[in-house]
Write a structure and sequence with these properties.
Length: 479
């Protein structure tokens, strides 16, 4: 789409479904099921309080909602592409063609498109590789997508499993643990090789998410090593060992391998085009989005970094603008906003505390619990917190934020913009937020740092914290 803005002729080659993982087995799919599971969980919280029987949806009903969501998104792409093709020569836009098939580079400027027995070769002045990624596997684990699944196969199961083990306690593993525990009827085991889940986040984030998962019946195997896993008589058997010498053997109905993703670059014919790859990893060597061949760009998951839909789109736009608008420099990822669909949801931008300490960056931090926010109280959703990090100087520029709780994602974007513009917390404190709203918690964090908050952390120290960390002190100093 960005390329046709420049009036260019574009050939889009896709061997499977337009939209790829973003629609069918990634962001849209998992978040649709997460939304369903959250509504069931919220409803059942009310039912439990009223001593009523819990609500249960059949897996067919969950799948029907999922299929509807995927169809709506797919229809937008298909309809838009067809209507766009019918407007050739109008609006000053370029021409877009779509070919179904497998693309292979046969030279620096040539691509062979194969579909069954037929093939054709095309010439292009510029080429963009946007081939996405696939679930990563582990040695010794035979994935059959029936009993031992990946995130590609989990949505194709015929029925909700009565029990499942999830291998990997990163974002995706924790999201699926949240989904199945929210739906009810599934005993969830989560294998965490580290001492705590979500190790990339601060302790307060991972501890809250872990506590909620365990409250919903999830068994988290902390510091566990998977020794063996296999399908026996239609069930999945796995063995764990622990640092203290303990071992454990468990049988479940399904297993989900969630240990990250790898770029789809094998078999592209990169060597034919002279595109350099890292001999150790097989990943494409890049300078930003540019490969060793200046006319060939690589974007999205195929870069083997920053595997997020919004960043893939950003990189695609950036690559096209490098080609036809002379855009220079690299993309800045410092103010990228992300959201983890957990219980509660977690939104983030910039650095967290462990990032700052690892880099030796002094910072000030303010944290306020949702229990202090009028909107959270009105929603009866008081579990969660805001945590705002700023530079330890007079400017107090925002360097990161974590929002954990209901509507967390709606509060993050303004802070991302402040980070990009280098704005200090005074501006954030002076904004007039709608009331009651969750975003008032962000403003209250800014006011805490300025000493002007409504509630005082010295009084509500169980719900509010404000402190400074410096590398020299290696500790916390009350603000």
């Amino acid at each position: 789409m960005r390329a046709i803005d420049f009036g260019r002729s574009v050939l889009l080659v896709e061997r499977d479904k337009v939209g790829g993982t973003g629609i069918y087995n990634g962001a849209l799919a998992s978040k649709t099921v997460w939304e369903v599971s959250q509504r069931i969980s919220s409803t059942n919280a009310v039912m439990k309080a009223r001593h009523r029987e819990p609500l249960r949806l059949s897996w067919d009903e969950v799948q029907r909602t999922l299929q509807e969501a995927m169809f709506e998104r797919k229809y937008l792409y298909a309809c838009h592409t067809q209507l766009l093709a019918a407007r050739v020569g109008r609006d000053g836009l370029g021409v877009l063609r779509h070919e179904r098939g497998t693309a292979t580079l046969t030279g620096p400027h040539t691509v062979r498109i194969s579909r069954g027995e037929a093939s054709t070769e095309v010439h292009a002045d510029h080429i963009i590789i946007a081939t996405g990624s696939s679930p990563r596997s582990l040695p010794g684990i035979e994935v059959d997508e029936r009993h031992i699944l990946t995130s590609d196969g989990i949505f194709n199961i015929d029925a909700q499993p009565r029990s499942i083990v999830i291998i990997g306690a990163g974002v995706i593993g924790c999201e699926f643990a949240t989904i199945f525990s929210n739906l009810g009827g599934t005993k969830v085991h989560l294998i965490d090789r580290a001492p705590r889940i979500l190790p990339m986040e601060d302790d307060d984030v991972s501890e809250l998410i872990a506590a909620n998962l365990e409250r919903r019946g999830v068994t988290i195997h902390h510091s566990a090593k998977l020794e063996h896993i296999a399908v026996v008589d239609g069930m999945v058997q796995y063995s764990l060992s622990y640092p203290d010498g303990r071992t454990e053997d468990i049988v479940v109905e399904k297993a989900l391998v969630s240990v990250g993703r790898r770029p789809n670059v094998t078999g592209l014919g990169l060597e034919n085009a002279g595109v350099a790859v890292d001999p150790a990893t097989g990943n494409i060597v890049t300078d930003g989005t540019t490969t060793s061949q200046p006319h060939i760009q690589v974007v999205g998951d195929a870069t083997a970094t920053n595997m997020l839909v919004n960043l893939g789109e950003l990189e695609g736009r950036h690559a096209v603008e490098r080609i036809w608008a002379g855009r220079e420099g690299h993309i800045a990822y410092d103010n990228v906003s992300t959201i983890m669909f957990l219980d509660p949801e977690v939104a983030s931008v910039g650095l967290n505390e462990q990032d700052c300490r690892r880099r030796g960056i002094a910072y000030r931090v303010a944290r306020i619990d949702y229990s202090c926010l009028a909107r959270a109280i009105a929603m009866r959703r008081t579990q969660g917190f805001f945590k705002l990090l700023v530079t330890n100087d007079a400017d107090m520029r925002v360097i990161g934020m974590r929002a954990v709780g209901e509507h967390a994602s709606s509060a993050i974007e303004a802070v991302a913009l402040m980070m990009r513009k280098g704005i200090g917390v005074q501006e954030l404190a002076d904004l007039i937020h709608p009331h009651p709203s969750i975003t008032e918690g962000v403003q209250e964090c800014a006011r805490m740092l300025l000493g002007t908050s409504i509630f005082k952390p010295t009084v509500f120290d169980d719900r509010m914290r404000c402190y400074t960390w410096t590398p020299q002190v290696e500790g916390l100093v009350a603000a």
